[in-house]
Amino acid sequence: MPTEPRVDERPRAATVPETYQETLRRLRAAQKPAGRGAPAYSVYVNRRLGRFIAAAAYRAGLTPNQVTAISATLTFAAVLLLALVPPTFWLGLAVTVLLAAGYAFDSADGQLARLRGGGSAAGEWLDHVVDAIKSSTLHAAVLITAYRFLVPTDQRTWLLVPLGFMAVAAVSFSVFLLNDLLKAARAGRDTTSVIRTGSTPLRSLAGAPTDYGVLVFVFLLLGAPAAFAVVYTLLFAAHLGYLLLALPKWFRDMRALDPAA
Known about the structure:
Keywords: Membrane, Transferase, Transmembrane, Transmembrane helix. The chain is mainly α. It has nine helices and no strands. It has a single domain, classed as Up-down Bundle (Four Helix Bundle (Hemerythrin (Met), subunit A)), CATH 1.20.120.1760. Helix 3 packs antiparallel against helix 4. The longest helix is centred in the C-terminal third of the chain and has 33 residues. It is globular, with a radius of gyration of 23 Å.
């Protein structure tokens, strides 16, 4: 008669869960290089904060899209506060903390995707859509609060500054994304495989005025409207100057991708 299959009665080795520090080390090893000229706060502060968040999110079982949703919630809460609440020091502190936290979670979603074995096209799309909305609505909120609370009637020409900043942010984001897409298309790769050459500390510091992380901390000056207006205007000038200087260089880079050139 057929015999019943025997059960292996040998004790099985217990599966030891990965510790938080081990997750961090694994994530650090999978970290992709920073973009060429990536500004200092984004490289040396925000990316590290994102790594801590990504490791915690991984252990909590969160998905990259859920982390992106948290980033969007924090960021757009700050945008709404900025547009609707009269500016004070405490409002500036709240806006800064929310924007900085949202930026850290924005860095964490991609790192979490790498921990989980790679991202998806839908996840990358969602991340870029949130970034695109953020890049314009933040300056729209500055425009609204300046009109409602900060700028006297006889100085309304200053409102052109956040309006211009909104345009520069939208154009810059679109061009950065388009550069990667065209390079990936010519190389026959997906966009997630466009690996940047590493940034140097000197190049990162030179790009500090165009760093989103620097812009975030300008909102600490909301309680001092004159100082806020001056620093915000200087940052706008830096972003505009960087874009005008970079556009010809990027155009040459695109021409170099075309064999017919």
